[in-house]
């Protein structure tokens, strides 16, 4: 793609913004080399990488790539087995630390994290923590090696410190005692890396030693006393040994690093790539940009697009379409209305998208793929010095026409300007026709009315305009496709104070056809604004209607929830009452059976039966539902009732048949199914339906006991679980369960007691031996629960 368009559309500024987002120097270099691509698969891959990195930035904190430095020269030195300097080894350690940090960022422990297209980059990083720790242990900085880098180095440095202490002690004795009168100053200094004392030149013969230097005036000589010469020599020797040991340490570290040269080089390459990708994602986050959808049909559909170099809080988003319904878009309107910005926005977003950068536009914006983007934009809004003459414009246009083809996007600002309007308009129409006939996607701005008519009369060519508010004399910067623009020169001039006479005189110089055309445009604009206002009102009514609908739905949902809750609580309460009544009935049955077995007095049986009926009547009264609309029946007199009459107990809502005649208080018994209920004649109404009487009358052939057994057999389980219970609790619950099971004619039951210590099992077996209705029992077999289960069989 031609480099000139980068400057015209200011693509280089986007690159500068991207470079500032990168952390490492290698990634910054990649940013500088970024260019748009024309390969759909490559563009898609780079866009997906940017999108994945952006998702990670929203989900996690920003990752730092500090420490990712240029490592290729170091790797080349390792390949030829050269010893690295301390600075180079620190570079290696920086790469390894950065690799560890980035690897941890890319492979989080969070369960909700899912792999993406960047996961392979993170997974390919090779961690070398041992090598990193060894380098950090041995090297403090580029100029300093740690004392404990090796035992020998530690010993050498201890010896140097010891000798230095001896030298200082010896020199301190000279300075503070016998030689003090001969010294210029009572200090110890260094000359040629050897310890010296400043001696007055006239006392040169009083101090034995080696002269290393003298002052500029010659009055002071710097003498190394003979007594410490040997010490200084020893220090020099130790310093040589120190350097040799440091070289050996660096060589050993280099050898360890050389064994991982390929991994270090690959890590550096991956870190640079990731830094570059995350720089693109960071830029997208700042711009509030999205990933465009690319197509190979050269269709552009930018939704709410913003120029990335303008303040996003002030810039007005625009919608631009090109290449689907039309391949040539002609934008007209007044100056400073936003025509050039719209032109640059289309071109710059196209370059950004093909370079793998997200674009500042709404989601699902579409961009076509172009091998070349040409632009002739030469006004005061250009970053470079504009080419304002007609010849300069035409030279540029000739170059564009020479190289443009169907895979090109051409952008023209003020096409045909700078010359006679008639000839300029004719040239503009001819140029656009040339591009249109060859299917070249083009967008041009103009003031010429002839181009508006050309767009209206030519297929696959569309008008557009930048909206302008005449009342405020301010552009709205909205791009309206399908509507030709109006210059509004007369309205603007009048608003600015130009006299009506001059404006009317100017109108006389416009042809009737041109005036009529401008009036049509004005009417279209007026109708459009009215339709927009109406649409806004419709949208408002829709929102209000939807709000009311949502409120009603929420209220209905709340009512449904409350109703369900009430029904659920009522059902639970009814179930508890019925279960309690069932327990009372079961207890009475067992008592009846025991009394029958012991041939007890029938009066005791009758008392138990009446007590049971009273308790059942009490529970039934809790289940009674008062009628919202009470039925109107004639009052029943005690004399009118006889056994077998069909009646209804009003308070309980139950139907039954009279079982006994009322007593003196009006109390009597009524059979409601299998229940014999005591009530009063005041709570009864007489039923006349003979069918109901027949249906409700109890069968003489079916005993009450058998009905209760059938009802119980429908609910009894063939297994009881006694795990976790004490022996007393388990025996009591088992006894009741076995009674129910026996009455329900269950052939056998499964008793789950677990293995444990065997105490519960033995207690259960002892209890089963005492029960007469138990025929046999045994431990469970394989598949039945083994010794943790007992199978009991009834007679």
Concise overview:
The protein has 23 helices and 25 strands. With about 800 residues, it is an alpha/beta fold.
What does this structure look like?
This protein is α/β, with parallel strands linked by helices and 795 residues long. The protein contains 23 helices and 25 strands. The strands form seven sheets. The chain has a six-stranded mixed beta sheet, sandwiched between helices. A hairpin with a 5-residue loop joins strand 5 and strand 6. Helix 6 (86-106) packs antiparallel against helix 8, helix 6 crosses helix 11 (261-287) and helix 9 packs antiparallel against helix 10. The longest helix has 86 residues, at 512-597. The protein is flat and about 150 Å long. It starts with a helix and ends with a strand. Residues 380-388 and 690-714 have low confidence and may be disordered.
Strands, total number = 25
Measured as a percent range, the helix fraction is 40-55%
Instruction: Provide mean pLDDT, rounded.
Output: 82
Residues in β-strands, percent: 15-25%
Shape: flat
Give unreliable regions as ranges: 380-388, 690-714
Structural class: alpha/beta
Radius of gyration: 51 Å
Q: Report the biggest beta sheet as strand number plus sense, adding barrel if it closes.
A: 6 strands, mixed
Distance between the termini: 99 Å
If strands are numbered along the chain, what order do they take across the biggest sheet? 12-13-14-10-15-16
Count every helix, treating DSSP H or I runs of 4 or more residues as helices.
23
